[in-house]
Amino acid sequence: HYSIQKGAAFLGIGIDNIYLVGVDERGKMIPEELEKEIERAKAEGAVPFFVSATCGTTVLGTFDPLQGIADVCQRHGIWLHVDAAWGGSALLSRKHRHLLAGIEADSVAWNPHKMLTVGLQCSAFLLRDSSGLLQRCHGASAAYLFQPDKFYDVSYDTGDKTIQCGRRVDCLKLWLLWKAVGTEGLERRVDRAFAFTRYLAEEVKRREGFQLVLEPEFINLCFWFVPPSLRGKEGSADYWSRLHKVAPAIKERMMRTGSMMVGYQPHGARVNFFRQIVTNPAVTRADLDFFLDEIERLGRDL
Amino acid sequence: HYSIQKGAAFLGIGIDNIYLVGVDERGKMIPEELEKEIERAKAEGAVPFFVSATCGTTVLGTFDPLQGIADVCQRHGIWLHVDAAWGGSALLSRKHRHLLAGIEADSVAWNPHKMLTVGLQCSAFLLRDSSGLLQRCHGASAAYLFQPDKFYDVSYDTGDKTIQCGRRVDCLKLWLLWKAVGTEGLERRVDRAFAFTRYLAEEVKRREGFQLVLEPEFINLCFWFVPPSLRGKEGSADYWSRLHKVAPAIKERMMRTGSMMVGYQPHGARVNFFRQIVTNPAVTRADLDFFLDEIERLGRDL
């Protein structure tokens, strides 16, 4: 994820000190490749200290094999961080939480504002450490802000643990949602999002001109729409360059019409494709059908 | 400000590489002291590159003498940053903007969520540079998030310039307020806050048992409440240690009563004092009188 690059630059670590680990064709980190990179780094005189695994990549919605990665990290004494910003909410579903097996890492990032539709922004940073690491790292003990002589337990004053000073109480939104719909209500949201994706995936396979980029593992539905003019021409020289232009053209039309908004992007060697994600619990099957019908209607003459 | 310490730790610069500059009795940076520190740093083999001046310190509301500081920075080719998070809003008042004379710095931070009461959080970072510095520093050009092949001008996509990825559109709140009350409406808010402070300062001087910590330069009203049992005993050995406990005790009472919330803190050699700041445009003179009366009532028997 590009945040690793930004973080390394920002923290003074330097992007040259990031080692990229090989992945399989779905984008899953290969534990053997991780171990190879760690050994290569050590041989180069570097001190590897941090591995970032991902649960739910941005585009394809891929989950890294956490248990294999954790074994490697443990062997080398390296901090394992899991970026579960996107996929972490699957833990709320008894049916789907297996995707995150092995998430007992040193640190985990999770964004309830993504899949659970808590209002932006609501980010949780979970630490295995219980020795006050954040206080030691970020605490500046500015007594003019965090008075130690209050009449209540000042351990509830968490401000000094954070990086920012003035900031909103973002956790309250999650707490209110949780109180309002309950653990089972959240689970239903998660399960429903998986079911929507399954439904759309089957429709995409059934409909002419629609093509899955890959079978969804999570709730990212990645697909191409192939307009009639390109169907059956996979063998022609300009097929992929022409297909690359289809999603942006349809996106422009949907935005000008005002009927929908849906993201598209290229990914590695794959040309532009749509990425649909449905988390809104108010969405109905009819909306999902409209979504595919509308792409068909807008892209028919391309 | 303690954010400099946090920032230096966080960015990998290291807090040992911060040089503190001497201030006068109000906490204003002394330009001659700045120049001395720069020369000391250079003599020690360091490369000074960044000076942070403050317009509106947290507790006392002090403004650094920007013009003198800018001259020193220019002579040494050092980036001048002005932390106007708190005091920057004074620029909206024709009567009070002189406090910020010389703010034409390399960078300025300003929080409209502070004095203008825009909802938290709303932070502006203003740069003199117009060459795309933020894009070059923070841009990761992740094409799967910031597609270059959109049908509209992608220079409006500012996401890649920022540190965070998912985040709220905080500027909209300021824009809406500005549209709603206008430049003159904002100016009235600023002027009113100064007038409230002036009123309270005069009342504090007039009332027995109240004592200004210093004449307010901005809208921070810093004062002690001296309960009857301590009045006239400034010479006694335990006067200051007893006064130190007064503000926390009154704060506890006001919180338990539920009548008010007001901050207190020690500052340098000064024992705990109240810091009152009134920015809410709905506050009336009667509220200000109640504020002082209530402190008197709650602290009378201490």
UniProtKB/TrEMBL annotation, chains A, B:
Q: Does the keyword DNA-binding apply?
A: no
MF terms per GO, please?
pyridoxal phosphate binding; sulfinoalanine decarboxylase activity
Alphabetical keyword list? Catecholamine biosynthesis, Decarboxylase, Lyase, Pyridoxal phosphate
The cofactors named for this UniProt entry are: pyridoxal 5'-phosphate
- N6-(pyridoxal phosphate)lysine PTM sites in chain numbering: 114
Instruction: List, in alphabetical order, the GO biological process terms annotated in this UniProt record.
Output: carboxylic acid metabolic process; taurine biosynthetic process
Membrane-crossing ranges are none
| Any single GO CC term annotated in Swiss-Prot or TrEMBL for this entry | cytoplasm
Q: InterPro entries in the record, alphabetically?
A: PyrdxlP-dep_de-COase, PyrdxlP-dep_Trfase, PyrdxlP-dep_Trfase_major, PyrdxlP-dep_Trfase_small, Pyridoxal-P_BS
- Indicate the quaternary assembly: Homodimer.
Q: Do you know which PANTHER family this protein is assigned to? A: CYSTEINE SULFINIC ACID DECARBOXYLASE (PTHR45677:SF8), GLUTAMATE DECARBOXYLASE-RELATED (PTHR45677)
Q: Which family does it belong to?
A: Belongs to the group II decarboxylase family.
Query: Per its record, how is this protein called by name?
Result: CSAD decarboxylase
Its source organism is Casuarius casuarius (Southern cassowary)
